[in-house]
Amino acid sequence: MTNIDVISDMLTRIRNSLLIKARKVNVINTKLTVNIAEILKKEGFIDSFELADATCLTENGVIKKYITIFLKYKGPKQVSYITKIKRVSKPGLRTYSSYKRLQSVAGGVGLTVLSTSKGLMTDRLARSNKIGGEILFYIW
Prior knowledge:
Blueprint: H1 6-19, E1 24-28, H2 31-42, E2 46-57, E3 63-71, E4 73-74, E5 79-80, E6 85-87, E7 96-97, E8 111-116, E9 119-122, H3 123-129, E10 133-139
Antiparallel strand pairs: 1-3, 2-3, 4-5, 6-10, 7-10, 8-9, 8-10
């Protein structure tokens, strides 16, 4: 059975959809991807998301459920609110940081998403709660 990195898959799907200025993108439904979508919506990077009824039967007979993420654009030229997404901690090389060493992204415009003992949270929330964790990705 193939093991995929759902975070990298999600970020790549969003990145590719932004390149073609798509309005929505389907991402594999896991607790982790739903929590990431909630953070992105709360911080204003995406418009909304919903649990899709669509399922897909893979070659192995596994049923995959998806969530639909609605991307957010501004102006008549349809400029995305997301400029760049950078994956930091990968399955082959995990990256951890204490709350004291967390740096602001893009001069405070962007954010860092962390996996902590209290769940997923942004760098600002981690600093205020004095919790460190695994740095999943940067977004600005």
